Task: structure prediction
Amino acid sequence: MASINQNAYSSALPNFRNLGIVLRILVITNLFAIAAALVKVASWREFWAEVPETAALVQPLLILTVLALFALNGILKGLPYTLGMLTVIALELVLTAALHAAAWPLFGLELAPLPRSVALVFMATVAVLFYFDLRGRALSPALSEARLQALQARIRPHFLYNSINAVLSLMREEPRRAETALEDLAGLFRVLMADNRELTTLAHEVELCRQYLNIEQLRLGDRLQVAWHIDKMPHDALVPPLVLQPLLENAVYHGIEPRVEPGAITVDIYTRRGELHIRLRNPYQLSGSHHGGNKMALANIRERLALHFDAEASLDTRVREQSYEVHIAMPYVRERA
Amino acid sequence: MKSAPLRVIIVDDEAPARRRMRDLLADCAAALDIAVVGEAATGRAALDLLALEPADVVLLDIRMPEMDGIELAQHLRRLEPAPAIVFTTAYDEYAVRAFDVHAVDYLLKPIRGARLQEALARARNARAIPQGALDAARGRPRAFLSAQERGKVSLIAIDDIVYFRAELKYVTAHTAERDYLLEESLARLEQEYAERYVRVHRSCLVARAAIRAFERDAGEGESRWWVVLKGSDERIPVSRRQQHIIREVGRDGA
Result:
């Protein structure tokens, strides 16, 4: 769970508790149902009559499927792939038969003949499983690791040279501060140059951000003010490395540096309903800001979040009158002890 | 040959960078006769300082808030005599590329003492940086315009200018408070600020944001359109050729 590269790729059932997987099952199956209805009918008018009839079988079946797979996820995961696949197919057929048996006495519904439903459900199940296998291969560790590596966050050269210059300015009169600054810089670059494919703890990421901000503080002095609201932060939460630091770098570059007056960056980190939320706000003026650069860092973080958490993570930005806000939500995952 | 010391001013928004430059200049003092006459953290402060303390060389950081180094260099051209400018930058691909093309001297931070000494020695006889080089290096329109008044450079924030009018040899900039004489051409201003100003007739650019409405004369014979400005009774005629702007500005929500 700590990373997506635990083992080399071999076919495996997807994680049926992942929201993205569940959504995919729903969408694909419904497309199948519509296709089946289309094949069966002769005209559009018939089609509209056929859709609810198909739905009567498909929707309850889907709900039961999703619930059953959610419940059985742990067991399925333990089975070899072929056995797991057969179990899922068997489960579907049993659910279909059960629905058929219950449809008339319980709901007064007359469904299509059982053999036809069984055939359709069988085909749909195999197709969905085949799709997940293909998708698993496409996102296999080899491939997604290559993508993650290419997505290594890059620091602005501007920052590196200005920081070195700031350290040089301290050398003669304040050697101790120069030492601390170099240590911070080394800590930051150790992470920047590391292999960042594994998730890291939130506490680590925040520490890294503090080192980064110390260096910026050296250059910008009182112009840079940071308010951390992290009392309720879960220190053990696992996050992609460099999920927050590039955002702070953007905030400094676009929000603080273009201003003569001091400006404040606010960071809120908290959990809510099993989700980890990171909110970052910085002052922003449309006219006075530098352009470019910003979108790349955001796209990079968004893609890394997607590779780690699929549809369960999100990154949104909002431009207000005087401020710019980034909001990240991701599942609250902890390291297994 | 004994000559007056080279008078140097440091302009950089970051205090450590200014301090580092002072250290380096002190190191150069053994080989070159240098006097640091002051330092400034913003373009505006630099102009104020130069009004009091004329300088031979300005060591000028490119990336600064409010008014960047490139823009300040353009305003410094109005000084007489204009100081030589040596740009400093940590990394500014865009400007640096333009300077390479136009052979303008710049120093990359962190700066080496020897390189600084070389630039200062050259600066004494340097020619003014050509306008074209600054235009090419600048990524965005100037935030201020400048006017030479009684030996001092006055800055006019572009946000404050309601309209420009071309008069014989000069262009005047009109703000709510007063008018300024500029050494600019209307065509160049129109090009630089195409998003802000609209040409209402051959010799006048009006800020889109300052337009309250358009009015038509109810007079007899040939009727005429006028621009009515916000917060002022002044009206500016719209030429027949430019009447299409009435619809355009109206549509963009004047």
